[in-house]
Amino acid sequence: EVRYPSLRKKPFIHFRIMSKPNKHESKRGSKRESKRCVEAQCLPILQHKATLTKLVKDNVFLVVTGETGSGKTTQLPQYLYEAGLWKGGIIGITQPRRVAAITVAQRVSQEMHFTLGKEVGYQVRFDDCTSQATVVKYMTDGCLLREILADPGLSQYSVVILDEAHERSLNTDILLGLLKKTLLQADKGSKDGSVRLRVVVMSATLETDKLSTFLGHCPVFTIPGRTFPVTSRFGNAIGPKEVDIALEVHVSEVAGDILVFLTGQSEIEKACDMLYEKAESIDYRYDVQDQTVEGLLILPLYGSMPTDQQRQIFQAPPSGIRKCVVATNIAATSLTINGIKYIVDSGFVKQLNHNSRVGMDILEVVPISKSEAQQRAGRAGRTSAGKCFRIYSNEFWEKCMLDYTVPEIQRASLTSVVLTLKCLGVHDVIRFPYLDHPEERLLLEALKQLYQFDAIDRRGQVTQLGRLIMEFPLHPGLTRALLKAAAYGCEDILLPLAAMLSVENIFIRPGHPEKQKEADKKQRNMAAQSGGMNDFATLLSVFQCDSPSAWCKENWIHWRALKSAFSIETQLREILLRLQQKKDFPVETFAGNKSELFRRCLCTGYFTNVARRSIGKIFSTMDGHGTAVHVHPSSSLFDQEAELDWVIFHDMMVTSRVYLRTVCPIRYDWVKDLLPKLHEVDAYELSNIAREEVNEEELAKLESKEAKRQKGILKLEKRNDETSV
Ligand code: CDP
Ligand code: MG
């Protein structure tokens, strides 16, 4: 058959990240709105509206499950609103991911014809878009956990929906335990049988029996879903990679959108660039099998993307254009994109894991589990039969992929969570009702770290400092440094720093090698201008720069990240001001220069992250692990190692080597009184005390053990004094 290219008049379109509304936008406007209403009408959940509403009303606990995309997250809260449940208090819905909370709230406010932030709002860390009028509130699970701290009975709420429970995020797991603990007890107590607070747990997969049993054998409602078959194809180790497969799908498969799963922002941006470049050479007259396909729309999707860009992901592409979304795991369950027919699965995910080698939480790229892979593939079969192209081989599937994803509670640091529990009066954190019990070693490590920060005492009780630390949505160490600075009256240097450390990727790392060089140079200059040899100070000076927007562009700084740091700083300042008004807020005086003061304050929070140079460029951590580490090439201290002796660092990166990132030199003097704390107490002792009531004899034993350790430390000190700067 001969095709006549000249008959095809339409141009060949490629788009790439459209942060500005494109010319197709206006055409869709009103049509889109009406289409959306129709969509909501035919979501599988709709038929069960009455049943679901009644079940929620009649039960303290309810588990709801159904395929992703069946309408649980967006519809159920609306049903409960219509049923008038909001009159008894807010209808709150938690999400493990902030992006999901924001985009879903936007969507639901549109569906309900409310202004976002009024009746329907959202709250995520450092971004509160709610008001007095808010009755349907989407939020991250972390936010609800903080609310429980201030109000353990959640008296403002009538219903709490814990969404995405199958993700098994640390905070959702803890919320499950807490609500079980308080509500099952309260239930027994109330005689009239009236229910004030109801809890709905929503989950995509079938772990529902376990959930129901955990929640006192509560009812389970399953939304029957229709799904279409998805055929999966494995790749092999040397086969084409994600971008090439996506391109192959584009030219050889019939119309339908593509969803590519990668691990993170920079990888996604790179892939989008490559895809765009390669797609440029497609000749749509000859190369594309399905002649109704006339162009490719490439859209990245990851957590830290601006929300107006994220919204475009959900819009239908212009007719004839195939959409290709390149996303992180966020698109696996939290966000459903309509029209996806093809999946390209890299088989990897970025995950925060506690690394026992270095004793810290590290962001790692790890293989996904088999159930996760099936979930990803399933995204192609929502509206018609789909195809899933796996980059990895069958062998990889068999040998490297676990059956199920390990819950976060069994792999992440529990420091903040344990402090939260303790503040809530859960003294025995080991026998708390966990859905899956965390490894004891993680609990012990958390107790130990809290003790090191003076957040709990030997008896496992929260200290005054611990309560102050709890007020800030930051890592306890960073908060402690901030509080120290505030005590000296110099919070103005630590507040911006804390804000800068709370946003991601301040420094842009361009993919192009030439540009990378340029960016490196600019960033090195910046470090030098801020006094050099201190990555924390560099961050501070970026925050303080004068002509932000233009300056950022020129210096390869993320303007948006910097802007959010400004807002975070204001919020942290407000918290601090409130605390400073209290009578017992600690105050101290300090004599010395500013740079020293800055670094000394940092030491009080980062003494758990101290390393000392051993030989050449190799450092050794002082936390008892004695890990051999290197300064990361992105640090201003890189290649200056010979001048260093002791350093503190913000985090680590583990590849074949362990790298320290965001580093600054300190003097041994500044940490010598703090370091003993690292070895002072055995975590087991803390937990025993947490478990049983304090026994004076045991305490005496501890004391004598500590005396011994002190002796050991004195010896170490002596040696160090001789070599210290
Ligand atoms: O929670 P569940 O996975 O059951 O479904 P959902 O998130 O409520 O999604 C229901 C429908 O709303 C899907 O067709 C989504 O594509 C759509 N949706 C959307 O278009 N925009 C959003 N921001 C969120 C959902
Ligand atoms: Mg959902």
Topology:
Layout: E1 13-16, H1 25-41, H2 49-58, E2 61-66, H3 72-82, E3 90-95, H4 98-111, E4 120-124, E5 127-129, E6 136-140, H5 141-150, E7 157-162, H6 170-189, E8 198-203, H7 208-214, E9 220-223, E10 230-233, H8 242-252, E11 257-261, H9 265-279, E12 295-301, H10 307-312, E13 321-327, E14 340-345, E15 348-355, E16 360-367, H11 370-378, E17 386-390, H12 394-400, H13 415-423, H14 440-452, H15 464-470, H16 476-487, H17 491-502, H18 513-529, H19 535-543, H20 548-554, H21 559-580, H22 594-606, E18 610-615, E19 618-621, E20 628-631, E21 646-654, E22 658-666, H23 668-672, H24 676-680, H25 683-691, H26 696-723
Parallel strand pairs: 1-12, 2-8, 2-9, 3-6, 3-7, 4-6, 7-8, 10-17, 11-13, 11-14, 12-13, 14-17, 20-22
Antiparallel strand pairs: 4-5, 15-16, 18-19, 18-21, 19-20, 21-22
Helix pairs in contact: 3-4, 5-6, 8-9, 13-14, 14-25, 15-16, 16-17, 16-22, 17-19, 17-21, 18-19
The protein binds cytidine-5'-diphosphate and magnesium ion.
Cytidine-5'-diphosphate is lined by residues 39, 43, 66, 68-75, 103-104, 107, 314, 336, 338.
